[in-house]
Amino acid sequence: MYDFCVIGGGIVGVATARTLLRRHPGASLVLVEKARALATHQTGHNSGVIHSGIYYAPGSLKARLCAQGARWTKEFAAAQGIPFEVCGKLLVATDAAEHRRMLDLYERSITNGVEVELLDAAELRRREPRVTGVGALFVPGTGIIDYGRVTAALAAQVREEGGRIVLGAEVTELRESAESVTAAGPSGSWTARRLVVCAGLQADRMAAAAGLRVDFRIVPFRGEYYRLPPERADLVRTLIYPVPDPSLPFLGVHLSPMIDGSLTVGPNAVLGLSREGYRKGSVDLRDAREILGFPGTHRVARTHLRTGVRELRNSLFKRGYLAECRRYCPELTMADLLPREAGIRAQAVLRDGTLVHDFLLERTARSIHVLNAPSPAATSAIPIAEHIVDQL
């Protein structure tokens, strides 16, 4: 019997394993991951941004843990020799309505203790000559990194501390007794005194397997990216974001310099019919049946019908996607949008159609389940892990 079992090999699961071993030196731990490599889903399919915490509701877990996580990520990367860059981020308002929302974000950033600078249109143009807007917020502490490399470094520390990592092992059954929890699947079973489940896109299924009342569903939203040609990689110096819609948990299509020197644009947010199908048009019959049969999905669709139709149209027709980008970077052309692999966001949706914005955890007597950990979970991974271990 192990002291601890962690299910899930994304950055939050690996960070939790590391934190458990450092809190409990000499403890036995096994981490079980379904894929044949770590960080294969949300951790490895994002924009690689070290977020600063400007967006999140004051007092929320996201607001508190993101600020801590940004500091930790930079310190860890520096100590491990992992490349990162603090390039800053511009949130660009392109009309009067966005400018009003931008000012609200400015006030929120002050409340959250995030350093931010308010720019007028002239200063925006001076800093980024190819970007157009009526004003912007500059967040100097935002950076870029490869979270796959961060996860690999954390996993190396797990192994150094005596932890075991099992890859290619799906868990389909959880059995909890008064003394232990057993995770089992086609590849074997693992029994531990305590269990942490960081299952991402499978979080609701793992919670149901543990006997938790599941009044939510993980609804996958495909985030489709494009990369720009290498000769356009110097188009902007900073991350360029639109001002987000506060009713949605998505940040909009943004220009993202990557730590490898490339420049990407994206992601959008399109309802997916396959939790782990990254190719456009992917459909998994079980996933589709659960998603479309869930009342919360229909309520989300009704509430955000106009947004959903626009996102689907822009996914089907590249010209609409381009128009979203040209609102703040008008010189982009169709030839600039080259294919790049999509990502999939695991979004928890309640039965009444509420999109869960904050991190969400639930527990049984011997386990903790991370039910919702979208962006900025990669930035916040170690503070999330500390919080999980405190709760455990």
Automatic annotation (TrEMBL):
<protein>
    <submittedName>
        <fullName>L-2-hydroxyglutarate oxidase</fullName>
        <ecNumber>1.1.3.-</ecNumber>
    </submittedName>
</protein>
<dbReference type="InterPro" id="IPR036188">
    <property type="entry name" value="FAD/NAD-bd_sf"/>
</dbReference>
<dbReference type="InterPro" id="IPR006076">
    <property type="entry name" value="FAD-dep_OxRdtase"/>
</dbReference>
<keyword id="KW-0285">Flavoprotein</keyword>
<keyword id="KW-0274">FAD</keyword>
<dbReference type="GO" id="GO:0047545">
    <property type="term" value="F:(S)-2-hydroxyglutarate dehydrogenase activity"/>
</dbReference>
<feature type="domain" description="FAD dependent oxidoreductase">
    <location>
        <begin position="3"/>
        <end position="390"/>
    </location>
</feature>
<comment type="similarity">
    <text>Belongs to the L2HGDH family.</text>
</comment>
<dbReference type="GO" id="GO:0005737">
    <property type="term" value="C:cytoplasm"/>
</dbReference>
<keyword id="KW-0560">Oxidoreductase</keyword>
<dbReference type="Pfam" id="PF01266">
    <property type="entry name" value="DAO"/>
</dbReference>
